[in-house]
Amino acid sequence: MAKSAKERQREVALRRKESGLVQKKCYFTEFTKDGLEQVSELLGYSEKDLNRDENISFILDYCVSVTLNFLEGYDNGILPKTKEAQYLFKMKQIATFRQNQGDSTQDVLDHLIRWKYKTPTIIRRRKNGRYVPRQRTYWSIEGVELLLNDKKYARQVQLLNKSFHVE
Predict the structure, then answer these.
(1) Cβ 49 vs Cβ 55: under 8 Å
(2) Which of 38, 42, 118, 155 has a CA 20 to 30 Å removed from the CA of 107?
(3) Tens of pLDDT along 38-50?
(4) Per-residue pLDDT tens digits for 79-94
(5) How far is residue 25's CA from residue 27's CA, in Å, rounded to a whole number?
(6) In terms of Cα–Cα distance, which of 79, 87, 84 is closest to 57?
(7) 128-163 as b/e, with b when 16 or more CB fall inside 10 Å?
C-alpha cells in the first residue's frame, strides 16, 4: 500500500534528522534569489534543479565554503566547485556526523543504504592513465571509507573539479 503524504513527510524528516541535517527557513530578496540562480548555473545546476530544497542547500553550502575560504584562508584545493563535488561533500558531512554519533563504518554504510542515498560520482584512474567519472550503483565499505578519509576525500574533490572543468 502506498504511503500517505504525511507518512512520507515524517520519513523524510527522520532521514534528515538521523543524517545530521538541520532545517532552517529562509526568505530571500530578489537580489539574493537572482544571485543563487547565477551561482547555480555556474555550478552546473539547471533551472529545474532550483525547485528542490536539497539543491538549494548544496548551493548555500558552496556559498558558505567560498566565504570561509576567502575570510579564513581555508585550503582552496578542497572547495567543492561542481554539483558532483558538492554531493560528495554532503555525503562526507553525513558520514562524519554518523561517525561522531558513535557509528562504525558498517553502521554508516547501513544508514546510507537504509535511507537510499544515491552514491556520489567518483573519479577512477583507468589502466591507460586517464581519469574518468564513475558512479557506482550501490554503496560499499570502500565508498564510506573514502568519505571518512580526509586525504582520499580531498583528492576526489580535486579530481571532480578538474574533470568537470572547474578548478
Answers:
(1) yes
(2) 155
(3) 988 888 888 888 7
(4) 888 889 989 999 999 9
(5) 7
(6) 87
(7) eeeeeeeeeeebeeebbebbeeeeebeebbbbbbeb
Q: How far apart are CA 152 and CA 146, in angstroms?
A: 6
Q: What is the pLDDT averaged over residues 47-63?
A: 83
Unique residue bearing C-alpha cell 548544496? 58
Give the Cα separation of 155 and 158 in Å (integer): 5
**Cell triple for 148:** 571518512
For the record, the C-alpha cell of 122 comes out as: 567518483
Check if the beta carbon of residue 89 is closer than 8 Å to that of residue 80: yes
Q: How much is the pTM?
A: 0.83
